[in-house]
Recover the amino acids of this structure.
């Protein structure tokens, strides 16, 4: 079957000047030398030309050759003892080299500016013809990112395969024609990747796929931070790390911590932490009026979202744009209605086992806690979480995301 | 608060120092009333504003809170009615808890204000809407409430539109022929008047020549701003189809029903004696100077059955001054410039715009 994207009422952003024609009869080998050579070159190009945007540099860095070769190595021999544990639902077909799924249709999250790229690039690395649908409202950062991708392929006509695999499109999702396009693309795809939270997953999952195709879905998630401070010297580092995790995307990315659990930390050190965090954040960000009001609405809702049985005490400390809310017991409603916008729910704990997480918890970041201690907790606890990472790395992309192994999902 | 006295205050004649003398004090008393009688308000004040009352400050509640929570200062068996905002522009609607006392106070204040513009006598009333908008229980929303509320000031209520929103030209002609020599009251929602009355009359080249009519209209300018219709253009167009009529826009909201802000002959909205308007900074919500645009806060002495006496709206506006409007009325006078941009969802949960 041949699909010509240009014949659909959609806007093809990448590649800019191509026929954008798909033939699902063609097959590519995952992690082929050509794919790795092209993508690692692209990585170097992005690091050089995208210098003013940290997220673009980070994406370029993620494509370094060594990392791509490591990934290849981890997946080429399907030995169960490998570090990168293969997911449980993968057929234990020992020693069989993985092959591409074929056509992958990705629906990217709205405004987490670089996530679209990782979703697409892993799919391409796995040898799939990839069509990525991106939001109609793009930030300047994303526009620059896509511009650089186009520039790379114009500058390097020798890399002729990868641009065939990398397609970014826009169309109005809500319009009737948009639904029709989603249907056509879904029926063409061998795998569909749905980002964008519970509503998007629910809506798009209704659109039928080919008989043997499957969905990879990313529903709503939230994340938390655990911090321990024992002396003043560590305050700045802890502040900088948390800032790295919460500053981008208005703290609205599902990996940005919404809650801080303080593990046996003196109030004096906590105060120092908040003052320093507030100073840095207020220097770097601002909220528009609409967001100021959304923040106020959430703060005023919090006392009404407490558990009715035991009236938990809620108290607020405002540090300019940053809001710290001390809460005795956090409810699911408080997490579900959290608007980002630099509101941190704050709780004191005496041990890691005091942490009570909700089912949709994704990332726990740790700061100032011995590795052996949190590793042990991770092993023993029944608390739902997809991963623990060091503070400052919550937004760093991994090919295993939300506990979903994307390489396994995008190959057969 | 003694409402027997309050209700008899002159609507637009009290100067700043005299109004200040009682208003702030009354609003603080009202805040404490809600603190005592509303669990929700108490929880908010205790958590977020514990030192406000002791330092003479009154917390401002975001008006959106009424979309998420039922806030009440009366017991369940005292609730007489829960009114809702129209659900047309947003999915969630505001719910406002009213007891009998609060409703009757809203009506009394509305009467006092509207009489300033229509006079004390009931007038023949032309309603620019269709008659079923108040019959449908499910539509018991701002539109229905508004029409019912203002119907008090009219007699021989005539609806100018059919149910499909087309002109009921026979009804309009009969009404005009019968009352053309009398003072007439015309009421409708701004967008409906524009879309289904003015445009329909212009399209069919029909016009009337009313010489003594007062038109009150309300309901937000967002749709009209989108098609570039200003207040001036609206007025001129209305005069084109109806003749030299007086046109007054008014500003109000279901969360503070009754205390409406009516536009004077000079084109400014006026604060009645029972209300106050504050403009807050778009940057940090601090109080803004007169002349600068900011977010409108409305304070009202009317709400006793729900804690809606000091509300931060989603509307933008400018206060031009106090006590010195060229129309001669006292009190603050202002413009509403529009609504704040809608909140955007960003991050992983963006739903695919």
């Amino acid at each position: 079957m041949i699909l010509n994207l240009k014949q659909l009422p959609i806007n093809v952003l990448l590649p800019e000047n191509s026929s954008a024609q798909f033939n699902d009869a063609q097959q590519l080998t995952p992690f082929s030398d050509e794919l790795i050579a092209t993508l690692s070159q692209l990585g170097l190009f992005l690091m050089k030309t995208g210098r003013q945007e940290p997220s673009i540099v980070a994406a370029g860095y993620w494509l370094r050759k060594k990392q791509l070769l490591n990934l290849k190595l981890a997946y080429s021999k399907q030995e169960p003892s490998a570090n990168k544990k293969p997911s449980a639902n993968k057929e234990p077909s020992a020693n069989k080299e993985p092959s591409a799924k074929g056509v992958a249709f990705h629906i990217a999250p709205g405004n987490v500016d670089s996530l679209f790229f990782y979703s697409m690039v892993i799919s391409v690395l796995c040898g799939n013809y990839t069509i990525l649908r991106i939001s109609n409202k793009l930030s300047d950062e994303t526009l620059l990112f896509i511009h650089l991708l186009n520039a790379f392929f114009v500058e390097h006509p020798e890399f002729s395969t990868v641009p065939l695999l990398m397609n970014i499109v826009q169309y109005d999702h809500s319009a009737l024609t948009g639904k029709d396009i989603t249907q056509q693309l879904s029926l063409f795809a061998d795998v569909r990747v749905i980002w964008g939270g519970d509503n998007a997953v629910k809506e798009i999952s209704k659109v039928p796929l080919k008989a043997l195709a499957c969905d990879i879905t990313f529903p709503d998630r939230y994340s938390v931070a655990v911090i321990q401070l024992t002396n003043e010297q560590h305050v700045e580092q802890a502040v900088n790390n948390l800032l790295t995790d919460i500053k981008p995307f208005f703290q609205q990315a599902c990996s940005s911590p919404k809650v801080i659990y303080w593990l046996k930390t003196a109030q004096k050190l906590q105060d120092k932490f908040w003052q320093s965090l507030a100073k840095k954040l207020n220097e770097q960000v601002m909220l528009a009026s609409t967001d100021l009001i959304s923040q106020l609405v959430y703060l005023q809702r919090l006392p009404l979202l407490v558990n009715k049985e035991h009236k938990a005490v809620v108290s607020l400390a405002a540090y300019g744009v940053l809001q710290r809310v001390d809460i005795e017991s956090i409810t699911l409603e408080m997490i579900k209605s959290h608007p980002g916008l630099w509101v941190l729910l704050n709780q004191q704990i005496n041990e890691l086992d005091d942490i009570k997480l909700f089912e949709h918890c994704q990332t726990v970041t740790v700061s100032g806690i011995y590795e052996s201690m949190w590793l042990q907790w991770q092993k023993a606890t029944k608390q739902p979480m997809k991963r623990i990472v060091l503070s400052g790395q919550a937004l760093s992309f991994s090919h295993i995301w939300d506990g979903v192994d994307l390489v396994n999902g995008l190959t057969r | 608060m003694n409402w027997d006295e309050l209700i008899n205050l002159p609507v637009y004649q009290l100067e700043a120092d005299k109004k200040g003398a009682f208003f702030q004090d009354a609003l603080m008393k009202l805040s404490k009333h809600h603190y005592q009688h509303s669990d929700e308000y108490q929880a908010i004040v205790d958590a977020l504003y514990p030192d406000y009352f002791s330092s003479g400050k009154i917390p401002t509640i975001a008006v959106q809170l009424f979309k998420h929570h039922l806030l009440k200062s009366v017991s369940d068996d005292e609730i007489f009615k829960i009114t809702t905002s129209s659900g047309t522009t947003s999915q969630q609607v505001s719910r406002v808890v009213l007891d009998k006392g609060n409703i009757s106070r809203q009506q009394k204040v509305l009467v006092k204000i509207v009489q300033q513009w229509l006079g004390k006598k009931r007038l023949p009333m032309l309603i620019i809407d269709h008659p079923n908008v108040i019959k449908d229980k499910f539509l018991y929303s701002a539109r229905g409430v508004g029409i019912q509320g203002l119907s008090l000031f009219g007699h021989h209520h005539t609806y100018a539109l059919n149910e499909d929103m087309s002109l009921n030209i026979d009804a309009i002609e009969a009404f005009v022929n019968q009352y053309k020599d009398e003072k007439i009251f015309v009421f409708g929602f701004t967008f409906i008047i524009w879309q289904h009355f003015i445009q329909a009359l212009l399209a069919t080249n029909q016009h009337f020549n009313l010489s003594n009519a007062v038109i009150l209209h309300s309901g937000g300018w967002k749709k009209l701003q989108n098609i570039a219709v200003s207040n001036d253009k609206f007025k001129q167009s209305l005069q084109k189809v109806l003749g030299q009529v007086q046109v007054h826009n008014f500003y109000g909201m279901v969360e503070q029903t009754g205390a409406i802000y009516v536009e004077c002959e000079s084109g400014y909205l006026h604060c009645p004696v029972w209300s106050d308007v504050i403009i807050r900074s778009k940057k940090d919500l601090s109080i803004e100077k007169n002349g600068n645009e900011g977010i409108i806060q409305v304070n009202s002495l009317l709400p006793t059955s729900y804690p809606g006496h000091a509300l931060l709206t989603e509307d933008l506006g400018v206060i031009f001054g106090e006590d010195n409007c060229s129309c001669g009325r006292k009190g603050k006078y202002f413009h509403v410039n529009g609504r704040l941009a809608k909140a955007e969802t960003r991050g992983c949960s963006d739903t695919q715009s």
